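new request in #modeling-help
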Amino acid sequence: MPYAFARILLSLLLLLPLAAQAGEADDFVAASATQQAKLLESWAAMPDLKRQPLLDALQQGRVAADGDKRAFVETDAGYRAAEGDAEPQGTPRKLRLNNRLRGLIANAQASHGLLAEDAAVRLSAARQLQKSAQPAQLPLLAQAQAREDDDAVRDALTLALANLQLVDANPAVRLAAVRLLGETGEPLARTRLENLLEPGVESDAGVRTAAETSLAQVKRKLLIGELLGQAFSGMSLGSILLLAALGLAITFGLLGVINMAHGEMLMLGAYSTYMVQILFQRFAPEALALYPLVALPVAFCVTAVIGMALERTVIRHLYGRPLETLLATWGISLILIQLVRVLFGAQNVEVANPYWLSGGIQVLPNLVLPYNRIVIIGFALAVVVLTWLLLNKTRLGLNVRAVTQNRNMAACCGVPTGRVDMLAFGLGSGIAGLGGVALSQIGNVGPDLGQSYIIDSFLVVVLGGVGQLAGSVMAAFGLGIANKILEPQIGAVLGKILILALIILFIQKRPQGLFALKGRVID
Amino acid sequence: MQRRSLIKAFTLSASIAAMGLSWTVQAAETIKVGILHSLSGTMAISETSLKDMALMTIDEINAKGGVLGKQLEPVVVDPASNWPLFAERGRQLLTQDKVAVTFGCWTSVSRKSVLPVYEELNGLLFYPVQYEGEEMSPNVFYTGAAPNQQAIPAVEYLLSEDGGGAKRFFLLGTDYVYPRTTNKILRAFLHSKGVQDKDIEEVYTPFGHSDYQTIVANIKKFSAGGKTAVVSTVNGDSNVPFYKELANQGIEATDVPVVAFSVGEEELRGIDTKPLVGHLAAWNYFQSVENPVNEKFVADWKAYAKAKKLPNADTVVTNDPMEATYVGIHMWAQAVEKAGTTDVDKVRAAMAGQEFAAPSGFTLKMDEKNHHLHKPVMIGEVQDDGQFSVVWETDGPIRAQPWSPYIEGNDKKGDTPVKSN
């Protein structure tokens, strides 16, 4: 059957030069979407390097048609005829492509890529063909594989060929193809093998057994990828929870202030990132990719200063009165939200990932680790380490711990408790600001950003045990991983409910959280 | 003493009378129009622009001399994304402010909340957002799309060759009435097209969900089993983390296209759209539609945003619900002119068959019977500038089927509105 199809295509191709005096680009532009698809399929089966510029232009969406239906390519200097040197009739209009045509263009590009001099280009072409190759391209692939001298490219081509050879007339060829597929961990190989095992598809018993073995092999490889993926997403969710909660672990955990405005510190950190991005866009567009790095100190300073101002003006007067603190900080959070709404509008603002935080790294065929999540996990751990060093290795940290453990005694020993309170609150707010920078890279930046994290933050701190950094770290990663284990089984909605219920039960049983301070420190 | 208090009483009553008089004089000069959109809370993101669009349209009508020679006077209230508060504010508009008509609501749950109030007090509500159908009240005019004007054509497109010939469908939505009902209709529709249950996966997330790692991984796994399309009824700003995750995990529109029913130009303002090029949205209007009416509409809106100093005025966009608001207000004004009064029953009768040349480029007609607009359906692809380019559209406006034939028992429901209680 595939050969019949190829034959039809070949005959079409033979007819083409007769019909097409105008040249391929002009033909393509004038054709209907269905005809364009046919053209692309035929080009994919019979690559010709002369077509390469046209395909490149198509892939980049630079092909346009003028009033006479002739093809033009958009360049920096305006429109240039794709064939000949005609001037456009009127302003050319960009060619409208749909997803099907884009897929076919990518496939045709890959066919042409096999003819390239550069082995790297041939390799990526071969990889693309593993996914998209059509039966009509079989002879082409076979030829390319036979003449290939680069080992990596030849292996990739062999695999691409194997996908098509599953329906070969010769059982021996089919058997080899099935065995080869078993060695890959491709999600697509699994479907192909499963299709082969459907009753009535494969007649040869030997091939069937081989397919079963290969299928088990592929499934095992896929399972490993899946488990690793789940572990990674659990870690990633945990690191986000940790960044959101770490500032609160200081303001609430160490200072004992029920700080409802903590979420707004995250939000202000995210908006600082946005402002830094805007400034870079305006004044240093060439260094735009580096803006998150600059945003870190900026966000830290902005939120720390706001936090210290809050502590001096409002919270200082409310120490020892948790209910009033709760109401006052909640009021502050509403004021901050409304302020941001007035300044920046109720709409979310756009914080774009720089190129080094977009995309991901392909670890296994079914496992892609996004860069922004990898960076955030590392960043969360770095912030934890720095905070720990600050609290345990510096004089400020010593003072903070002294004040937390026994305020009166610390004051007697000459610790300026008021100043320490202010600095500690500033530190907590500043760390929340750092969290805001990280959150801006994965989620929305809007006035309500803090609201969606405040409950999670309190959960983490309370579950981990008030007054302990280590507890917050354990709780954040524990919650993240538990969430990701539950989610695929029972769905996101039920998973969230179940986690909440479990935490309530746990707190009933153990009110002091995972880790409790030991000794005579509780006032 | 007595005389003085008499004088006092007299001046007081006189001033009250004068106030009352001035009130009635003013009332005689203007027609009050209620605007019921959330200006704070989670839905503020979408609804604030509808409030501004309504005010702009009212300004436009007033500049041309108003309706029946009277100026329109907008009464803006804020139900704060709080569903029961919608009913309270609606009652306030009808009984205290005595508005002639109300334009408002976005989520279906807010509409369901005000519906009993408007039916009880015989008010008039124009609802501008696409929704799940299953409702037809004599007190509501629906200027957004019913399922057959959005969801079903979109899935038909995905099944077609140009749409990629999808064989498997991943239905992803936020967990509330609109996505659940829509997906129920779509499942029945897909069954009728021969798609089996094993090729349909339905997944819901809570409002405001922001961690889409697992779901995107599942989409990838699901799509290995054959040509897959994702139908997204995710609402609100959850869309941003969803699309970011798609891009980061390397799912491209050519492999797995996502068609969204609640993502428009406004929602894309908060996203870097470069990785999203090729993903789809189905609506009845896009800002990029080219025709003179739309050019004027977009230019007017940009000028209005600048003049009123709306936040981020230099990047404002128009979208489908804004167009539906604009069309709704103009149609109501036409109907009042035709009826010669703002009386609800007479305006309702005059609305039947009302026509308006809309920014979508078509002359839209209010159906004679079912209170829904006849609308064209368009499918647009996300471009790198946050706009959509139309890849498919119907030849003309199609009639709404609020009672979807794909839900059992709907064939017995009538074609004229009846009160729900």
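bot summary: Chain B has twelve helices and 14 strands.
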